[in-house]
Amino acid sequence: MIKLALVGYGKMGKMIESIAPKDQFTITGTYDVINPVKEHLKNGSDVAIEFSTPASVIENIEFLSSRGIDVVCGTTGWYNKADIVKDIIKKYGTGFIYASNFSVGVNIFFNIVKNASKLMSNYPQYDTGIKETHHTQKLDKPSGTAIRIAEYLLEGIKSKKSFINDSQNPEPNEINIISERLTDVVGRHEVDFESEADTISLVHNAKSRRGFAEGALLAEKFIKGKKGFYKFEDFFCDLKI
């Protein structure tokens, strides 16, 4: 039985709570801005799933790690501070796993994009771009998922050197990420390969947050009792659903 703390009790936290198998997980506490984890943490948690905000995530990771709690982090917008997080995890000897997106479907999509980028590199008549659409509450732009997709495309398509966000006139060697924020959209990512003759599109459209919650619980099983800093997608293909 894994004892689980939910740090960030919004739509994702509530979805995780609702689908976590009762014979595998015990929810030890739920925390948010009204009930902050630093002030109200209950004893006995093995792992915390952290879905908060870019402004609070580093502080939450430090606090949880200092209490010997392993962390599954689904918050994005902090990756430029990855070295700080690595130092925290090393200091306290805990486990940490993060993802730009824990969705099982998105991680399958990552692998499809990775393979497609290698193939499309052989066909320079196709240009490529990304469009991502999320709910209006999403703070970071472009999404962490869209950035990871761009990185996979850059690895495979040698004519592309960088990505840019919402550009009206991207350079030929840039991948343009168009970002939209709309009401009641869970998350949609589209990769287009465009030529004068046709368009090839790869799309992942989240119907609900369930896929994200399932992936976060997979990550929790993986990280419990481990030490070190891990990226979910590096181990996704080895995880058992």
Structural class: alpha/beta
Tell me the β content: 25-35%
Query: Low-confidence runs (pLDDT<50, min 5 residues)?
Result: none
Order of secondary-structure elements: EHEHEHEHEHEHEEEEHEH
Work out the helix count: 8
What fold name goes in the CATH topology slot of the largest domain? Rossmann fold
Helix content: 25-40%
Helices and strands in order:
Layout: E1 2-7, H1 11-19, E2 25-31, H2 37-40, E3 47-50, H3 57-66, E4 70-73, H4 82-92, E5 95-98, H5 104-120, E6 127-135, H6 144-156, E7 162-165, E8 174-182, E9 187-194, E10 199-206, H7 210-223, E11 228-231, H8 232-235
Parallel strand pairs: 1-2, 1-3, 3-4, 4-5, 5-11, 6-8, 7-8
Antiparallel strand pairs: 6-9, 9-10
Helix pairs in contact: 1-7, 3-4, 5-6
Key descriptive features of the protein:
alpha/beta, Rossmann fold, five-stranded mixed sheet, 11 strands, 241 residues, Dihydrodipicolinate Reductase, domain 2
